Amino acid sequence: MTAPLLPAPASDRPRPGDVIRNPLGMQRETVESVVIAFTLALLFRAFEAEAFVIPTGSMAPTLMGRHKDLVCSACGDDYRVGCSAEEDEQSQEFRARLAQLEAEADALRDKARSGDEAAARIAARKLDQLESRGGQLEQLRTRLARKLVQASRCGNCGHVMQLVEDTPTGVAYDPAYPSYNGDRVLVDKFSYDFREPRRWDVVVFKYPEDAKTNYIKRLVGLPGETVSIVGGDIWTTRDGQTPQIARKPPERLLAMLQCVHDTRHEAAALRTAGWPSRWTDWSAAGAAPGWTAEGTGFRSRPTGTATLRYRHLVASPDDWEAAAAGKPAGAATPALIDDFQPYNAVATRPHWVGDLAVEARLESRAEGGTVSLDLVEGGAVHRCTIDLATGLAELSLPGAAQPVRGTTPVRGRGRWNILLANVDDELTLSVDGRRVAFDGPTRWNVAIDTAEQARPDDSPRQPGDELPGDLAPAGITAVDADVTVRDIRVLRDVFYIGAREYLPHTGGFTEGRRLDFPLEADQFFVLGDNSAASKDSRLWLEGHHVDRHLLVGRALAVFWPHAVSPSWAVPLRLGSIELRLPAWPNFGRMRWVR
Fold first, then answer.
1. Which end of the chain offers a freer environment for a tag, N or C, measured as fewer CB atoms within 10 Å?
2. What is the CATH number of domain 258-492?
3. Is 402 helix (H, G, I), strand (E, B) or coil?
4. When comparing pLDDT for 420 and 40, which is higher?
């Protein structure tokens, strides 16, 4: 029986003025709070911002898809290589089928060891078919092995690293090189309701051929324009006007430059084998050296003219093999700087890149003298000269009668970080991260037909030649200045592959014309920064544009990169106890998307 409800004792009955707390009401309040918070989060996701994970390397190195973090064993440079294929739909299908077959093989082994002789013979025969040479297990393992990145080449020194090892069941990744998921990107879904998308924005959009799939690319073409890809650059025109090159704003330019060589990472094995430095003293034969090596850079002699030049010397596999064996390296032949991308693991067909930048840490030990930085493109020299006594900088532009002038803080004794860039037919100078203003234009206009026919001056040059070609495309000159240049980097611009580019390995051009893409109202043109490995507007089968209604938003930041390796994790010390966290946040990779 159920006991009857009894009235509460008088001492427990509420009195006037008491606050009555209902346990059921409190639970309801908690549930309502959770529901409201969840609803607000969904509303924020739907209308304000949303997190996306980058699956592939089409935007590398700006944004990483599934990849491996590598440190070159020869020069110590850190870089990334993409491995998206190991987790694509085909790989997952292969892996599931392989797991199924291996389970079947285990079951057959058990039957082969059973006491039933007839069943054991049948099981052994089926097992032999599965495990035989050319059997289903071997075929699937081979297919999976082909999806793995077998090796990668360092973009700084050219050394090749093997990323796989042989195991009893076939080729597998070396555990020293784990794979990580792509960057997690926060996307602003709100701002395009109030302003127009801008050229060079990194945007997320619905793939025009499958609106269920999100893509992320860089927006390079706006409604009503005709976009042309010529010589790695973007050209635009509208209403029949003359095509103009599309120039990147300063923050985009700095973010999109890719390092070709860094003096902080030199390969010791090549140096021991006698391989020459890529930066070489450019004094004429028999003249006194103008520069001497010092740490990660070079020091000039304090009097006279001293010129230092960069040559793109890439060691071949034979040179690396000789260096590993302790033998002298072969002859070093300069090459043109091309669009090789270490993220792609293997070399693709190279295209000459003329848009370059040079960056260095300059230290002056005297009050006077001049320092010049120069970049060569198509045989034309673009030079910036800084007077150390006054800080006055002069830019010499091709075809200009007079240089343009600007004031810099580079004056007397001190240290400064200097970057000179020749990108998109514009010469820019930055000192300690701040762009220098000049009293005249620092850009020039080239006809698109002229740009289409541009080619490098790759005739051989020797130290002492006054007119360097594209095989010695960057230089630093000190005149009566006691200076040291350290941490020198040579960088290149993103090269958008079109239909007609100069091919260094053939000395000629590809067949065909430039690529032109007309856009109508509310249509946008998008490209990946990793032009050699990006399915973008150039390659879509149904049209080459993204309609406005397919735009999801603008990428804001990489907000949670993969955790650093446990061996790199910062230890947490509690007295005499050291605790190394297995998933230390990689704060260094958190950044705004430019």
1. N
2. 2.60.120.560
3. coil
4. 420
